[in-house]
Design goal:
rod-shaped, 230 residues, single chain
Length: 230
């Protein structure tokens, strides 16, 4: 049984099953049935290889999208935390400044009362006792403002504000790592999508490489293993 090679190739373009039925008599160029079968097998193997490649790229895109979603959630949470820490830090320093100002006013008031008491040699005893009680109250209150058991003293507020600032710095570093990770993961997804459309293999390798770097940055953003420059 012989076939026309040209007719076979045209039939092959319409599908392997159709090509098998395009066997007919030619002017001299003939092809044996086993050669036709080999050609069909090669074509089917090529299609299967391309199908497997597209499936792997699809899995890569899915994995990158999943990591990107997790990274975006972490980034949004870190941004909210950063805003909250900034507000808390500002409020704590404002409270500290108010305490400091109030302490300074009390110290000045005590100094002024002591000056009046020292100048008033002929003051009655009751008035002098009143001045002394006021001076003691001012001094005691100013001293109490320096450190209080409820954590509202100047020392406690300063320590709290500095701790909040430290937490804010950590959040800023995490946010930077999240931002870099999201950008690289999005680039990796674009490269992988372009590889599917164009069939260019090196784009898949590039997408995988960029995706690995983005994934490592995402892991670093959660655990802050390495500090990323802001």
């Amino acid at each position: 049984m012989v076939c026309d090679l040209v007719a076979f190739e045209k039939g092959l373009s319409r599908g392997p099953s159709f090509a098998k039925h395009r066997v007919c008599q030619s002017r001299g160029d003939v092809m044996e049935i086993n050669e036709i079968a080999d050609t069909i097998a090669e074509h089917e193997a090529k299609e299967e290889k391309e199908h497997v490649g597209r499936r792997r790229v699809a899995l890569l895109i899915s994995a990158l999208a999943m990591v990107l979603a997790i990274t975006a959630l972490g980034g949004n949470k870190t941004t909210k935390q950063l805003i909250a820490l900034s507000i808390e830090s500002s409020d704590t320093w404002a409270f500290f400044q108010a305490k400091t100002l109030r302490q300074a006013v009390l110290s000045l008031s005590a100094d002024d009362a002591e000056g009046q008491l020292a100048a008033g040699h002929d003051l009655p005893a009751e008035v002098r006792l009143g001045f002394e009680a006021r001076i003691k109250k001012y001094r005691d209150t100013a001293t109490r403002y320096e450190s209080e058991a409820d954590g509202s003293g100047r020392k406690e507020l300063m320590a709290k504000a500095r701790h909040i600032e430290h937490e804010r710095e950590i959040a800023e570093k995490r946010e930077a790592s999240f931002a870099y990770a999201e950008a690289l993961l999005q680039i990796a997804i674009v490269l992988a999508s372009a590889a599917v459309a164009s069939g260019v293999r090196f784009l898949v390798k590039g997408a995988a490489a960029v995706g690995v770097i983005g994934t490592l940055l995402a892991i670093n953003a959660f655990f802050l293993l390495v500090e990323i420059p802001l």
